[in-house]
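Re: the 161-residue chain
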Amino acid sequence: MENLFNPWRMVYLKKKQPRGCIFCNAWEKKEGFKTLCVYKGKETLVMLNRFPYTNGHLMVVPKKHTGKLENLSEENFFEIISVILKAKNILMNVYNPHGFNIGLNEGTCAGAGLKDHIHFHIVPRWEGDTNFMTTISNIRMIPQDLKDTFKILKKLFKEKK
């Protein structure tokens, strides 16, 4: 058996988990590293994924707590698309990825970890980013610290308001 030591996870394991919806909680608090929120619009916020697939993995979240896309207003839907485009442009300028996965998982069977509050994922992708560590060891390599990613993206979202 292989052992992979990651002592930084103990902080997470011992941490008291917040009650309620993490997205609704992020709306109630200021933008900041605690919530990983880098931008708040009128009805849409952008936050980092705490367990990113790649560097710059963002989530775009409507203010409305709903698990169904059709429950959003047309205004909210258009704001979400506008914010997704803004986020994509920022990520392109920071990381210069070769492509993106942008999507919504609606419902548990579709992979939604939070089935009651829809959110869109924006995942920058690079040719060859599924390397041998992922293929052989089932380990994803994230080369940038989450705090560094947060600082960079927070600053750029502030500049693009």
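The first helix runs from residue 9 to 14.
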